[in-house]
């Protein structure tokens, strides 16, 4: 079965589309403002990661032609959601424990209750856009974004869904900065993966994990020779003939990295390149192919 | 299609392995106890179903979810007769709250911690040499969701054997948020009772080994299907339509009809809304008299993301022993349960060939499994 990337969205400071990922990050760019894209309605009490996730979902589903006025443009029970975020609700959790220590549970806001659960982004996305298929949250470290893509592809192959919205998103705040010891990207990307379809921005090749990034990189080149784009942030090498894109200019992408890499590959193909693109995130790896090249 | 479950493991507040947990359930032994490590002056509710494992009484420590996970996986792998080296075997972990308790201790008390400690990769690699490890944070149905993905891995031929686990400890933030909205905390968990007053969190872990072929020892059971979906309706209120769709999909995928199901291990949290919805859906799907219905949360508490797999491990014991533990604390069934065969008062003895396991979570994430006896 061919699995196609049929929708792409990017939301990072100064980067609102896949092509922008191929350029250096603009220093001092304004933070992403989800309300400007999806309106303020329903965003009150949502944490930053969830707002960014809803923004990305709206843009990616629209790009894939899956959003109609008032609901999804396909059967809701065939639309699945996978979200990758490691740091998403850590600020809610840390603020809660601080408030309890200072004031007891009386000082907590009841509106924060859903945000204490790590699947808040995925479930809010499903509720807002009527996505009634499987709803999965992957919190799996550096490789999490590519892992999310892998599980989405598996659910398409096993017939659990016809389209899967995969969102990778992380918020920048005091807690997440301290956790990763530096700035966090405050945004991410989303892609829609679909079973065989006419219009595609990219095709998905093998997605897997090995014991380490070097092993993953070696296997990628073996599985789909001739890659002209290497997406890797781990400092690992790429052949001189290929473009190496670290995507490190926005801060730590963490769980968003793998999905942002897939979006960047779509941007690469849109610019006319046609060799395979390789993504390495943690020990996870993925091959992305030009839509007119058969995998 | 079905896949043998060739090993099982579990830990909870009422027992350190599946047999001990099953014995406690049949004897009605509860794990509910006064708060073991949280500052009691900060909460209205004063009791939880915690596992009593902390080194110093009253002093919390990081890494407990990981500890329970590793123990459940160790048991399951041993039970399956596999070596402890899991280098070639995917390990899928469903959890509601990951290592967020360790994060809390880091933020508040300065206990060392880093972002990679939020998930379970490092622990599973150092203990079992596992490389293909995955942490799914899907609220209370997370571990059955992980089981569904394990099914897909086997069906696609991407793995011969998969370890699936669930684990959770109570976080102060989740307990605190629940405490904030429960002005009158329930004294106990009473699933499907008309006087039920809410749920109480618990701690636990469970693991199974799922394989494409039978192992060297008799299988614990055969997994027939796992269906997963999402209500896409409300954060905290379950939706009967979504729940019923998941149940019917599980039956369809397993190729079974409702009358063939002998037992349902219900999600049964003891909250007014969950139990009402779940009972109504069960009455809708099954014609009277229907299957025996039980649930474990009155004695284990609501163990969050590990709950679904813990229920499944209990279902395996029911299949094996022909005994169904009763729903402790259930004396007068709720109106929606009239006519349902809720097991109350004492365990029910009789053959169980096919069991359904329900697991529903925050955000309307539903998972339903069908499991049969190995014989």
Strand and helix map with partners:
The complex is a heterodimer of chains A (295) and B (375).
Chain A: E1 3-11, H1 34-38, H2 48-63, E2 67-68, E3 71-72, E4 79-84, H3 90-103, H4 120-129, E5 135-138, H5 144-157, E6 163-170, H6 174-180, E7 187-195, E8 202-209, H7 213-223, E9 229-232, E10 243-245, H8 257-270, E11 277-281, E12 284-289
Helix pairs in contact in A: 2-4, 5-8
Chain B: E1 3-12, H1 18-27, E2 33-34, E3 47-48, H2 64-79, E4 91-94, H3 100-109, H4 121-128, E5 133-136, H5 142-155, E6 161-168, H6 172-181, E7 204-211, E8 221-230, H7 240-254, E9 263-265, H8 272-285, E10 292-294, H9 297-300, H10 307-321, E11 323-324, E12 341-342, E13 348-349, E14 354-361, E15 365-372
Parallel strand pairs in B: 4-5, 4-6, 9-10, 9-14, 10-12
Antiparallel strand pairs in B: 1-7, 1-8, 2-3, 6-7, 8-15, 11-13, 14-15
- SSE series of chain A: EHHEEEHHEHEHEEHEEHEE
How many β-strands of chain B, per DSSP?
15
Going across the biggest sheet of chain A, name each strand in turn: 5-4-6-7-1-8-12-11-9-10
Per the CATH scheme, the topology name of the largest domain in chain B is Peroxisomal Thiolase, Chain A, domain 1
Task: Give the assembly state of these chains.
Answer: heterodimer
At CATH level 2, the architecture of the largest domain in chain B is 3-Layer(aba) Sandwich
CATH homology superfamily name of the largest domain in chain A: Thiolase/Chalcone synthase
What would you call the structural class of chain B?
alpha/beta
By secondary-structure content and strand pairing, the structural class of chain A works out as alpha/beta
